[in-house]
């Protein structure tokens, strides 16, 4: 597990007075400001966050050290990370996406199917993108209790019971 978790991304400047458009990845989108200071991916810059208002696709926000449209535009695409200890503890059956990436995927018989490459949220439920030996392309495994009955973060693996024909 990493010390920081990606909680949002800067989509660019919003207006001409230094506000940015902020997209939150948090279950409670406005809570992103509660986890500040937020850091860029390298951990070299940190930002205090003040949400000013909701806008289409996220929030207008003020970030410390950003006071012009040009500075806001220069941060477009910057992913924002919060220290893990600032985030709430999750219930037993919920996970941060970052903790699932890299886990080994084995079937109920113990055969290795691959590793989780990414977690996708396409609106109808999360999908695990699994990449593995013998696969010509990645496989999208529904992240449901039926298809993934066991997640063992300590062991670095999850047990999958994929639908028939999903894996060769």
Short key terms for the protein model shown above:
168 residues; mainly beta; Elongation Factor Tu (Ef-tu), domain 3; SH3 type barrels; 2 domains; 6-stranded mixed sheet; 13 strands; 6% helix; 42% strand; elongated
Q: Could you give a quick summary of the protein structure above?
A:
With 168 residues, this protein is mainly beta. The chain has helices at 69-74, 97-100, and strands spanning 4-14, 19-24, 38-39, 46-47, 49-55, 58-63, 79-83, 104-107, 112-121, 126-131, 139-142, 150-152, 157-160.
Please provide a written account of the structure.
- 6% of the residues lie in helices and 42% in strands.
- With 168 residues, it is mainly beta.
- The strands form 3 sheets. The chain has a 6-stranded mixed beta sheet with strand order 11-10-9-8-13-12. The protein has a 5-stranded antiparallel beta sheet with strand order 5-6-2-1-7. Strands 3-4 form a two-stranded antiparallel sheet.
- The radius of gyration is 19 Å and the shape is elongated.
- It starts with a strand and ends in an 8-residue tail after the last strand.
């Amino acid at each position: 597990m990493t010390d920081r978790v990606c909680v949002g991304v800067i989509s660019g400047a919003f207006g001409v007075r230094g506000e940015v458009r902020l997209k939150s990845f948090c279950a409670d989108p406005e809570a992103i400001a509660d986890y500040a200071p937020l850091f860029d991916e390298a951990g070299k810059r940190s930002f205090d966050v003040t949400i000013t208002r909701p806008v289409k696709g996220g929030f207008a926000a003020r970030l410390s050290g950003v006071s012009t449209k040009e500075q806001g535009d220069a941060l477009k695409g910057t992913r924002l990370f919060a220290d893990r200890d600032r985030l709430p503890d999750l219930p037993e059956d919920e996970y941060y996406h970052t903790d699932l990436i890299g886990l080994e995927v084995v079937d109920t018989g113990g055969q290795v199917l691959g590793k989780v490459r990414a977690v996708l949220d396409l609106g109808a439920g999360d999908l695990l993108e699994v990449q593995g030996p013998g696969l010509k392309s990645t496989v999208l495994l529904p992240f449901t209790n039926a298809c993934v009955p066991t997640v063992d973060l300590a062991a670095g693996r999850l047990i999958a019971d994929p639908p028939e024909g999903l894996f060769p």
